[in-house]
Amino acid sequence: xxxxxxxxxxxxxxxxxxxxxxxxxxxxxxxxxxxxxxxxxxxxxxxxxxxxxxxxxxxxxxxxxxxxxxxxxxxxxxxxxxxxxxxxxxxxxxxxxxxxxxxxxxxxxxxxxxxxxxxxxxxxxxxxxxxxxxxxxxxxxxxxxxxxxxxxxxxxxxxxxxxxxxxxxxxxxxxxxxxxxxxxxxxxxxxxxxxxxxxxxxxxxxxxxxxxxxxxxxxxxxxxxxxxxxxxxxxxxxxxxxxxxxxxxxxxxxxxxxxxxxxxxxxxxxxxxxxxxxxxxxxxxxxxxxxxxxxxxxxxxxxxxxxxxxxxxxxxxxxxxxxxxxxxxxxxxxxxxxxxxxxxxxxxxxxxxxxxxxxxxxxxxxxxxxxxxxxxxxxxxxxxxxxxxxxxxxxxxxxxxxxxxxxxxxxxxxx
Amino acid sequence: xxxxxxxxxxxxxxxxxxxxxxxxxxxxxxxxxxxxxxxxxxxxxxxxxxxxxxxxxxxxxxxxxxxxxxxxxxxxxxxxxxxxxxxxxxxxxxxxxxxxxxxxxxxxxxxxxxxxxxxxxxxxxxxxxxxxxxxxxxxxxxxxxxxxxxxxxxxxxxxxxxxxxxxxxxxxxxxxxxxxxxxxxxxxxxxxxxxxxxxxxxxxxxxxxxxxxxxxxxxxxxxxxxxxxxxxxxxxxxxxxxxxxxxxxxxxxxxxxxxxxxxxxxxxxxxxxxxxxxxxxxxxxxxxxxxxxxxxxxxxxxxxxxxxxxxxxxxxxxxxxxxxxxxxxxxxxxxxxxxxxxxxxxxxxxxxxxxxxxxxxxxxxxxxxxxxxxxxxxxxxxxxxxxxxxxxxxxxxxxxxxxxxxxxxxxxxxx
Lengths: 415, 415
Description:
The first copy, chain A, is of the alpha+beta class.
């Protein structure tokens, strides 16, 4: 067991030097592929348009015939011209399209073209050639892309109803702690609600993996070991929450140490310093600190990297924006810090980040921690952004511009 | 039927002046509430910690007893002190905690405190008071917030297993066009693949609504009317694709006009100018242009606003970043433009946006349209960003900074 604190990067390097998961793929219908990671480059199966298509609502005609005799008043529908609307193919004898706004249809079936000033009739005008939208063999989407509606629409247009994607990793979560009660239960003195399960559930979903939240396990070596072994058999990675530090009942990392190879214990990153990573049965196990912000921190830097590794892509990231700091953001010495801030956009479109301070009632103790004043959870988790400081970084003053990660939907930061 | 082109804003104002949907709510388990819109302010039901909690792994003791006699070597476990780990409550007779790293446990059961230089034993040290994380009655989350893992964790910690959210609106989509074949079918000459269904499906999901994609309907007034009426009975809003312009078989807006009140036809926004909005049976119907980029445009500005109205929140927005333009971005006169661009981040962390140009083969016609050169679909939909110009805006030169919307996951734009 290594007691020396390591950086986030060192912790992941330790893990990835010993664990290199195989990328597993599966084929799913395009309708079930949103947010999935594409497993192979995809190329169009067909030319679209197959032959050609009018790019306007209009009439199609033969340019050579028009050039030979530009008097179109005696033309006959179906012989000298036909209707060809946007996207329509038309008979081989025609090759050019004039848009309907520029066509006068005469009662006898003939027509007159009235092109706007400066425009002339040209061969092939308003006609999209074969393959103008999709050319057979052309790249539709590169392996590793996360499939969005646009890419899936292209893949469908390229001729596919199914798509090969990376299998979603399954991440198990075991909440440990005799003091925990279930969500919806009333906590008695000394008890706490197992709300980390929903935090893990949601964040693991955001990362593109399948969360499996197991029942609460009491503080007992054997129970934790049994739960971990069950989860390891069912999942690709296992998270144990609580019991991560130096408490008497901190069994989680001891179980990981007993059953596998403990790679590190303690990270230079707060909140959540006393976390650990082990390889057990060839799978990563992470012991996450219990406090909610600590758990969020570990999920964001560590679990997302593990999931990214299994997906074969960069770890899930939140959108980043530069924001003017409306207040002081303290940063601890010798430690990275993750904190949440409020976020809004001013009338000029600039983002502002607001540090979240607890409003203490008279007689309360101000809660201090290594990262500066600790916020009440209730306030911290209403924050719309998170800020992650680097090792050795100085504190930031009001007016400084810092780069924050949006954890709200973008429209929620708008005025 | 109004033929006059209106701006996007005017189009929505016309609709919202006549249509003001009721916000419908429902109660769902917290585990099913991700991405949903919270329907009411929520307040904590309990104080957490219920009484108090140690904020460190350590030993709890009575400060007054220590002050009276600081010799702790004769203390007895369970009488003069007890173990109190992070988050633990402890007996009423104790009030302060020294962290375990600063405690020497003596073999006889007594102990010695070894605090770091400059630190002293203080009353209430390392103890979180009742309600330090959640105070009964404190705000957990405001109505209108989109529920993320953090807010749901707070709501669970506040005592709730269920949450009142806005019902997800149901948006029906009817693809019209005799030339369409289903996804996975091989298109013959003149045919096209119904790939817009998957585009609509995905984008409507992104907006927070439930998409219902109906089967392809042939170009026939009666068939379209029947399909629209069915969809209107089952959905909160209905989208008809294709048949939106001046073609001979452009029946969709005519059906909307016949069955309801056509509010506008034609918007100053390309691609997808010939779209229309109607109120039919008191519900919004939107006729979307068939070309894929045109459909994406209409979904992004119009359908998202309609869904936002039903959710009672601002319309869905993509994350926005300022990006250096690597190339020319032309903007049409008198029209807004939506276009896609590639996006990447350079080594300094600055985003760059790259216009997407089709690479035409020799002999091919360059495809021109109102928004400048038209891209091949296959290339346009690999773009990681979209850019929306304002009315009256000028074109942008290489090196200009423009604000683009990310349509990829943020990590996909990283180096």
